[in-house]
């Protein structure tokens, strides 16, 4: 079967795209390993519009239910992992119109257009205790979770812009904040460094800190680290830790197909969510858009869905079903 559009992902971007392609009466295939995206680990999301408080698990269920409400137009393949995307049956000419083949770990599918919404995954430390205490002190999104650490002692791992911005996000809530940086200096913008350093809630910056373990019982209680200059192992007691060492876009399946930036993010024209290949659109954390937020991902995915719809009409190979 040749689908009008194949959407890859299960987070807010993929969900929004599927709802809009369905409403445009496009025969849609959504391929995902699971619904929810990165926020599924959050116990209390407070910035999803219309939901003052919702857990990542409950939000994921709502995503899936919303897509399944359009089961007449949207087919879901889950759990499946996309491994490769390539163009096929390309027409010679200025328009460069192609069909696309999407390979997964279970099957292969064909579509007239693609919406990439597979998001990103937080770059993790890969140390003992990190996974055990995720959601129990270990966090990766300060914008999402900073309010949960009101009155707490918190560490931020990472001295780049992301780490410093996390520190700023924490200042209104945490009792005290500590920065742990592997290198010998902070890497963030000088202006941001100044803003961070002048706040009395910043109690310390630990340089040459190689994190070894997240410690705790039911909840985390501290971070074990090595001073790389002296070799001495130490423990910083903390109620929480934000790991801010970057993220990894889930773009491996298009690394030889689309233009990516040096971080592996899909380069888009943000006005129409277009990529370097006609007929392929992208939205959310997989893209080079600088702001990584659920609400932004959903809005950008609506643009991608509408752009895909217009592309298909101009391609003159699809006639939307009546409805």
UniProtKB/TrEMBL annotation:
Keyword Oxidoreductase: yes
Keyword Flavoprotein: yes
Keywords: Disulfide bond, FAD, Flavoprotein, Oxidoreductase, Redox-active center
Pfam family of the protein (one): Pyr_redox_2
Domain FAD/NAD(P)-binding: 3-292
InterPro entries: FAD/NAD-bd_sf (IPR036188), FAD/NAD-binding_dom (IPR023753), Ferredoxin-NADP_redctase_2 (IPR050097), Pyr_nucl-diS_OxRdtase_2_AS (IPR008255)
GO molecular function: oxidoreductase activity, acting on a sulfur group of donors, NAD(P) as acceptor
Name of the protein in question: FAD/NAD(P)-binding domain-containing protein
């Amino acid at each position: 079967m040749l689908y009008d559009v194949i959407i890859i992902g299960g987070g807010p971007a993929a969900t929004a795209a599927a709802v809009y392609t369905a409403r445009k009466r496009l025969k849609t295939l959504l391929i995902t390993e699971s619904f929810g995206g990165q926020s599924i680990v959050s116990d209390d999301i407070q910035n999803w519009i219309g939901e003052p408080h919702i857990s990542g698990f409950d939000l994921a269920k709502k995503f899936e239910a919303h897509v399944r409400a359009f089961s007449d137009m949207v087919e879901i393949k889950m759990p499946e992992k996309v491994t490769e995307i390539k163009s096929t049956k390309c027409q010679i000419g200025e328009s460069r119109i192609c069909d696309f083949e999407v390979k997964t770990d279970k099957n292969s599918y064909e579509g007239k257009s693609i919406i990439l919404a597979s998001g990103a995954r937080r770059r993790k430390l890969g140390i003992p205790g990190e996974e055990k205490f995720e959601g129990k002190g270990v966090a990766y999104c300060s914008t999402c979770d900073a309010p949960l650490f009101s009155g707490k002692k918190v560490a931020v791992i990472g001295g780049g812009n992301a780490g410093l911005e996390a520190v700023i996000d924490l200042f209104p809530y945490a009792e005290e904040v500590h920065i742990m940086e592997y290198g010998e200096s902070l890497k963030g913008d000088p202006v941001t460094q100044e803003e961070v350093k002048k706040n009395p809630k910043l109690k310390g910056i630990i340089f040459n800190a190689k994190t070894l373990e997240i410690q705790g019982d039911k909840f985390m209680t501290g971070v074990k680290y090595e001073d790389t200059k002296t070799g001495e192992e130490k423990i910083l007691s903390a109620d929480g830790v934000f790991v801010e060492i970057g993220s990894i876009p889930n773009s491996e399946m298009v690394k030889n197909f689309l233009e990516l930036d040096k971080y592996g993010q899909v380069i888009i024209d943000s006005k129409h969510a277009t990529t370097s290949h006609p007929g392929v659109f992208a939205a959310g954390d997989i893209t080079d858009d600088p702001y990584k937020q659920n609400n932004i991902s959903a809005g950008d995915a609506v643009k991608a869905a509408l752009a895909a719809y217009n592309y298909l009409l101009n391609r003159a190979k699809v006639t939307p079903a009546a409805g």
